[in-house]
Amino acid sequence: MPAESIQLALTPATQYLLRIGDSCLILAQRVSEWCGHAPILEEDIAMSNIALDLIGQARAVLTLAGQVEGGGHDEDQLAFLRNERDYFNVTLAELPRGDFAFSVLRNTMIATWLKLLWERVSVESSHEELRAIAAKAVKEVRYHQQHSADWVVRLGDGTDESRTRMERAIKQLWRYAPELFDTDAADEAAADAGWGPRWSALQDDWYAQMREVLAEARLAEPAPSQFLSEGKRGRHSEHMGFILADMQYLQRAFPAGAW
Amino acid sequence: MHAADLAQEARVSAAWKVLHTVLDPEVPAVSVCDLGIVRDVVAGEAGLEIVLTPTYSGCPATEVIESDVLAAIDAAGLGPARVSLRRAPAWTTDWISAEGRRKLAQYGIAPPGMVDKDAAVPIRFFGRSMNIATPACPRCGSAQTERLSAFGATACKALYRCLACREPFEHFKPI
The domain A12-218+233-253: what is its CATH number? Predict the structure, then answer.
């Protein structure tokens, strides 16, 4: 018998946590696709290490989300037994890995966002466990940010080929940025309850830091996008189903399988 | 002090002694105490509680360390014991003891410098011409070293090379 999907009793707090935890989880899955495929060995190791840190952060946040949700779901059930609409990662995290320029730019965008988020959560959240998770995670993601931004500059200010690819990556990815700062009722309610900042509060710092990276890379900052993706509301791109099929197959086929 | 308290106190200090012999599974030159992972040992009604603080969120060694610690306590006859994880304050390489740093260097791993709290800038280049302080070579002591790879064989390390003796070496990243 294949494993059945779990049903969540969704509250703003649970959704706030799942938006963060799922973004870490799904990005980790995408980043780990570089294992064995990165252009040089050092970057193969870098991508795998970044994915590992993100998986660790996802585990901690999903465990906490399960406790807050109160349905007795653990990190594995949350990671493997939800249907697509019950994942709340930002769409940016789920896009196929693209070429190396695409991946390092995405990593820079998400690491910068996570850094700002974890920094704020680590001091502002009234929830002790989440503050502790954030204080650990911020040390990891700022290293990811530095490493990934370094590559954006190298490629952007590199050869004609690398620059062309980085310009293309910006064109493809920039439109997914507004979702990182979009505020809705769940975000407001969770922020009011002291879980962490409203995501909209991160916007100015994020654009300022990304602008610094783009300027160093001699890349033009695109106009802000009017498009608003909605992965954080459970409405995903067409790529999400495929990534879940990869991730969930084993647990669905062999329920409760452990190693 | 009551005799029972003295017995508990002796049990805790015996446990610390044992924990100093439990090596990190990924850097088997230093003990979990040298690394600052063991935060506390508490004797209670139900036995010993060993309080650990994990290093990296995704460090795969965490679970191995938990079971190694319990096995060592058991083998020394100090059980029953259990491990609890304390996330806050977050682990930092500043907690690695002087002895731990000495052992790391002896093992060929350049120990971390103190954490630079201002280093959280978005871009930090490690180009050849950049004037960023690099760790001294743990083999020949030369300060002329360069970074080869930002990440290493484990989450906690990066890869460097000595420009004097030409040997590659690992560096424990300060976090």
Answer: 1.20.1260.10
| CB-nearest partner of A45 from B58, B88, B149 | B149
Residues B72 and B138 reside in one and the same domain? no
> CA distances (Å), A177 to each of A170, A172, A174, in order?
11, 11, 6
Which residues share a beta bridge with B41?
A: B50
CATH number of the domain at B21, please: 3.30.300.130
Alpha-carbon distance values, B152 to A6, A150, B100, B118, B164 (Å): 38, 17, 20, 23, 21
Number of separate domains in chain B:
2
pLDDT of residue A192: 97
**Does residue A119 contact residue A138 with C-beta atoms inside 8 Å?**
yes
What is the least distance, in Å, from the CA of A189 to any CA of chain B? 26
The predicted structure's pLDDT at residue B1: 58
In this prediction the pTM is: 0.93
Angle between helices A100-124 and A128-156 (to 10 degrees): 150
Q: In which element (H, E) is residue B145 found?
A: strand B145-149
Asked if the C-beta of B91 comes within 8 angstroms of chain A's C-beta atoms, the answer is: yes
